[in-house]
Amino acid sequence: MMRYKYLQHRFVEHIPEQLEPGVLYISMPYATAAHSCCCGCGEEVVTPFTPTDWKMTFDGENVSLRPSIGNWNLPCRSHYVIEQGAVVEVEPWTPDEIQGEYRRDRAAKAEFYGRRSSEQPAIEAEASSSSSSRPPSRWQRAWSCIREKC
To answer: By the number of CB atoms within 10 A of the CB, which of 44, 109, 120, 144 ranks highest?
Structure first.
């Protein structure tokens, strides 16, 4: 059961260290959204916007994220979609379905990034140019991990 049925969106440059429950933080400069898990467990959920990960749409009033958010690595194992700000609970997946999605995701990343190996995604170039002498933030580390398929 989802504790939060609706997420208020906030466009921010940097995702805050402490996430307020019921708020979807969206950082366009880092092509990432983050929120506290909608089940109420308090775990941080990060959804990067890439050609092989999540897509965000904003209609001027509400935000939607696709595909669904499956928190398979969290104790709660919640699964939901954010559609025009509403949190829609989705049936849990079986271990076989989860493993199949992991395989599909790895293959999609290998195909997309392998094909574009000579091109650098815009967000990567922007992130690396802004990291002067400061150590990378957790969002830059997360983005690096996603790029390196860790």
So the answer is: 109
Q: Are 65 and 76 in contact (CB under 8 A)?
A: no
Q: Report yes or no on 129 lying in a domain.
A: yes
Task: Find the domain containing 125 and state its range.
Answer: 95-147
**C-alpha span between 35 and 23 (Å, rounded):** 6
Q: Which two tokens stand for residue 82?
A: 């954010």
Determine whether 1 is exposed, middle or buried from the number of CB atoms within 10 Å of its CB (0-12, 13-18, 19+).
Answer: exposed
pTM for this model (two decimals): 0.75
Place of tokens 């699964």: 79
CA atoms within 13 A on the CB side of 74: 19
136 and 111 in a single domain? The answer is: yes
Structure tokens at 16: 């805050």
The answer on pLDDT for 1 being more than 90 is no
Element (H, E) at 64: strand 63-70
Average pLDDT (107-112) is: 91
